[in-house]
Amino acid sequence: MWKKIKEKLYNGAQGLSEKIQTWFGAPVSHKEDLEDLLLEADFGMDASTALANYVIQQRPTNWTNAVHLLKEHLSGLLKPYEAHLDAERSCASNPWIVVFLGVNGAGKTTILGKLAHRWRHKRVRCIAADTFRAGAQRQLEIWAQRAKAEITKIETLSTESDFFNTKAGRSKDPGSLVYQGLQDAQRNNNDVILIDTAGRLPHRSDLMDELKKIHRVITKYYGSNSYTLKTLLVLDGTTGQHMTTQVSSFEKILPLSGMIVNKMDGTARAGMLVSLTQTFKLPIYGMGVGEGIEDWVNFDANFFSEELFSMEKSNFF
Q: 149 — phi, psi (to 5°)?
C-alpha cells in the first residue's frame, strides 16, 4: 500500500533534494538557509532546527551525504511516534474500544470501516454515534456489512427526512446510543468496539461537549473493570497547516491517544506529519491511502523518512 503514497512523497522530495543540493553548493552553507528549506516543506520550527543543527555538526562532504544525514536524523525523530494498532490490540485488555474524532470530511467513517475489516477475525461491533449528519448511519452500516461486523445504530428511521425530528437537529442522543452499543457488545461478547462520531468544528461547543459525554459514558460503563480505550483523531492529510489547529482544538476537549492521517495518497505535504509529531508528541497510528477497504498502512518512520528525501524513485515496490 505504500506505493499509493510513494509517488506523492517522491514528487515533494525531488524538489526538496534539489533545493538541498543548491544549498550545499552555495559559497557559504548557512544553517539558517537549511532551516528555511525545511520550514517551507512544512517540517515545523522544532524539527527544522534539530535537523539543520545535526547536518551542520556532522560536516557533510557532499550534498548526497547531507541528504543521507537528514534521512537518518529524521527517522530518529519520528521513531518514538511510530505506533501500530494491531500490536497494541493483540496485547491489550478486552474490550478494545476506539473512538474516532475529527472535523467534517476527514474520513472517520472510512477509516473505521478499514479497521473493522482489518480485525474481521475478531468479534467487531461498530457504533454509529454520528446522529447529526443525515446518511451517516447508512454509510457506517454499509462499511460494517463489508467488514462483516456487527453494528449498533438508530433503528427507528423510516426515511432520511425522519432523521431531523427534533429542534436540535438529531433524532437520538449520541451518548445514549453509545451506552446501548456497549450493552450490545457485552451481550454479544464483542472484543473490538469501534465508535463513529459526528464531524465537528472546534467552534461548535455543543458538538464538542458531546465528545466529553461519550467519553464519560464509556468510562462510567466499565468503571474498574478491564477494558482498553483509544481516542484517535482522524486528520485530512491534504489540509496542511489546518491539521495543527485541529489537533490543538481536540486535545483541549479529550485526552488523545494518537493520530491517523487520511488521504495521504492525495497530498505532497507530508512534511506536516513531522511538524505534528514534534509539536504535540502524539503517535501516528496509520495512514489512509485510498477509498478501498484495504487501503491502510501502518506508519513506518524509516520508510517515510527515506521517501521524504528520496532523490530517485525507489524500486522498493
A: -105, 155
- Going from the C-alpha of 63 to that of each of 57, 59, 67, 124, 250, the distances in angstroms are 14, 11, 6, 50, 40
Quote the pLDDT of residue 312. 44
Residue 80 reports pLDDT greater than 60: yes
Contact indicator for 270, 240 with CB cutoff of 8 Å: no
C-alpha–C-alpha distance, residues 258 and 285, integer Å: 7
* CB-based contact 268:12 (threshold 8 Å): yes
Assigned C-alpha cell, 207:
458538538
DSSP state letter for 266: G
Residue 129 belongs to what H/E stretch? strand 124-129
Place of cell 459514558: 217
Q: Is the CATH number 3.40.50.720 carried by domain 96-154+170-301?
A: no
| Residues 42 and 237 sit within 8 Å (Cβ to Cβ) | no
202 cis-preceded (ω within 30 degrees of 0): no
Question: Which residues have CB under 8 Å from 168's CB, separation 6+?
Answer: none
Report whether pLDDT(78) > 90.
yes
Domain segments of the chain as ranges: 1-81, 96-154+170-301
Of 32 and 265, more confident? 32
Predicted TM-score (pTM) above 0.85? yes
Q: How far apart are the first and last CA of the chain?
A: 9
- H or E element that contains 36: helix 31-40
pLDDT, one tens digit per residue, over 83-113 is: 999 989 888 889 999 999 999 889 999 999 9
Determine how many CB atoms are found less than 10 A away from the CB of residue 64.
14
pLDDT digits (tens, 9 = 90+) for 237-257: 888 888 999 999 999 989 999
